[in-house]
Write a structure and sequence with these properties.
mainly alpha; 2 strands; single chain
Length: 115
């Protein structure tokens, strides 16, 4: 029988890829399901200008992801600075934040139940 630790290690990349794909596939759906913008925001949306605060590339459940985080991830990746790499890293940062929030929720629920 194979070592369970090896099975876990081989399963983690597959899980990460699956979650990454799910996040990537749901992002366009989320933006389409958003409520209609107000008349003030309609002009901004039509112009293609982001409504995010300066220096913020995404917001996950109210938690901003800063441009500096993306810049650090790009440097750490040792990849060329291309729009495709930046988009991939942005989605990875979003997925990481979703995981972090889910873990924090589970921890809070576990603490509440131990009470």
């Amino acid at each position: 029988m194979k070592n369970p630790a090896l099975r876990l290690k081989s399963g983690l990349p597959a899980l990460c890829i699956s979650v990454f794909a799910c996040v990537a596939l749901t992002l366009p759906l989320t933006s389409q399901a958003a409520p209609e913008p107000s008349s003030n925001n309609a002009a901004v949306a039509a112009s293609g200008v982001s409504t995010l605060p300066p220096g913020v590339i995404a917001v996950v459940n109210g938690v901003p992801i800063a441009q500096t985080q993306l810049d650090l991830a790009l440097r750490a990746s040792n990849q060329p600075d291309t729009p495709q790499i930046r988009q991939t890293l942005k989605l990875e940062l979003i997925a990481r934040e979703i995981f972090r929030q889910g873990g924090a929720r589970r921890l809070q629920t576990a603490r509440h139940h131990r009470g």
